[in-house]
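User: Can you help me understand a structure? I only have the sequence.
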Amino acid sequence: MRPLRSMATVTTNVPPTRPIPGSYGFPVLGPLKDRLDYFWFEGPEKFFRNRMATHKSTVFRVNMPPTFPFFIGVDPRVVAVLDCTSFAALFDSTLVDKRDVLVGSYMPSLSFTGGTRVVVYQDPSEEAHGRVKSFCLDLLRRSARVWVDEFLGSLGIMLSTIEGDLSKGATSSNFLVPLQKCVFTFLTKSIVGGDPSTDNAIGENGFALLDSWLALQLLPITSIGFLQPLEEIFLHSFPYPFVLVSGPYKKLYNFVEKQGKEVIERATNEYGMTKEEAINNILFVLGFNAFGGFSIFFPSLITTVGRDKNGLREKLRDEVRRVLKGTNGELGFEAVKQMELVKSTVYEILRLNPPVPLQYGRARNDFVLTSHDATFKVSKGELLCGYQPLVMRDPAVFEDPESFIPTRFMGDKGQELLNYVYWSNGPQTSSPSPENKQCAAKDYVVWTACLFLAELFRGYDDFECDESSTAITKLEKATS
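Assistant: Let's start by predicting it. Here is the structure, written out as tokens:
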């Protein structure tokens, strides 16, 4: 592994300045070619890797979807930043503006959020951002009182469902639906303070309502592996209208309005939000950030551990049970913080498979962008785009970066590497605040993932996952 630059080195030994390589091609044709490469001919990771190799640079110009023909006011031109040094510029609020760039130049209609421009689309320089982000942080702090119990209770139902399928002779049990039900139930109870089972409109299908709402916003920028060219024609050529999910959103809105009265009152009385702003922001935090994030991350967590062939599960099981002996069997955030291998495994899966692969930021003014081996002049208004699955496999930072190494983040060296784990829109070693755009639930995500593994190995000796699907093929009850 090459030695990392200290901040002093960066400021005193400035790499040579070079023009940003790459081009956007001809109007319409250039963006269309890049779109087809990104979704169809190469796929996202190969798309970026090929251009890194062509330009011999981790910084270059390229077009990002969505593009032609029916996206109005969307500029696909970006400056890609694909190493840890250049990518860090996206977290410097003096350099970049995060206004309306959550998913790039494209922004779904405000109809999807009840006409409210929710906090994730706001820049920290905006007065409303500080108030709403403070509310979100307060919401999470208060939810901590029930978070662990609600999560473990919902997880227990999920695992019992899978265990029941396998005990009936099934060779495998797909965990996606039980997982999403688990996540939806525990989040609504923890964040909203409501029980979906008491609401006929939500009941068993609340998770599916969120899925449909999320899907219509993200289809234009998401590769789903559908039959090409049908995917390009029907999913990536135009934005879908909110009216298609207005019914599901209204049901979710009514659920929060009815069962989240306490949190809504706090938002209006203490943080100066209107009732509508509060509900729409709560729904976005619940559905887009929390439910959407866990729905992407947990399958990676389960399948990565469940497919391991190098004895990881046995080591995790032994660590979990050893620590729980010292806590008299009590499982919570404090207990999992003592599980070094469990934590390192979670960090490593977040490094390799971040729930949000793309990060964006728009240059506030002209500035000099620094990569590992060069500097580049970025002009005011240019949009920077970082693809995290490559950034966090930076060979200048991570040794053997393509490999899954569960022990990578153990010890002093591992703790230093956490400075370059950026999945939460900031380094793992920094903290979310009203003044930055880091995920408010950064720590909750990590500790909840650790709870998942700890509860799994507290109740079961082993489990295995199918190599090519989201299915569990073995769930062996604990014998001691």
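Now, to help you interpret it: The chain has a mean pLDDT of 94. The longest strand covers residues 471-477. Let me know which part you'd like to focus on.
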